[in-house]
Amino acid sequence: MDFLGLGFGDVKRMNKRQLYYQVLNFGMIVSSALMIWKGLMVVTGSESPIVVVLSGSMEPAFYRGDLLFLTNYQEEPIRAGEIVVFKVEGRDIPIVHRVLKLHERENGTVKFLTKGDNNSVDDRGLYAPGQLWLTKRDVVGRARGFVPYIGVVTILMNDYPKLKYAVLACLGLFVLIHRE
Asked: Catalytic annotation on 97?
């Protein structure tokens, strides 16, 4: 059975040494990707330096599927109008919204309120129960740039898990079978 010009007969024809080499090659690719991700985390100061916009709440600034590049340098002050990505207790998925209001105290603490550009009300309904303001520790990052619609692939893979597994299986098979 050939799939994209790759056959299982190729795997049968490989000796053990070639097969081990291909498995190690695959492991190197995966570990390289993880090292690049961790390096981006260190350089940007963000636990998630790249995120995908998952809803239309920020239209027309960002659309569903846009890929955002984030930084989260602690020494930079948060300002009204800035677009932040934040996590709320009890929710797994970070939210991308604009800082609407700031509440600064004399002791230097800053609290802020967010709102999606396309939403009619602020985000207090999205925050944890009893939480009225966000703090810097809630921020995952601040939007510094974006690439439109590239993240649609991520959305499709999350919406259709079978597609995700099929793509991953094809990529893994290609790496294992492809000889160079």
From this structure: yes
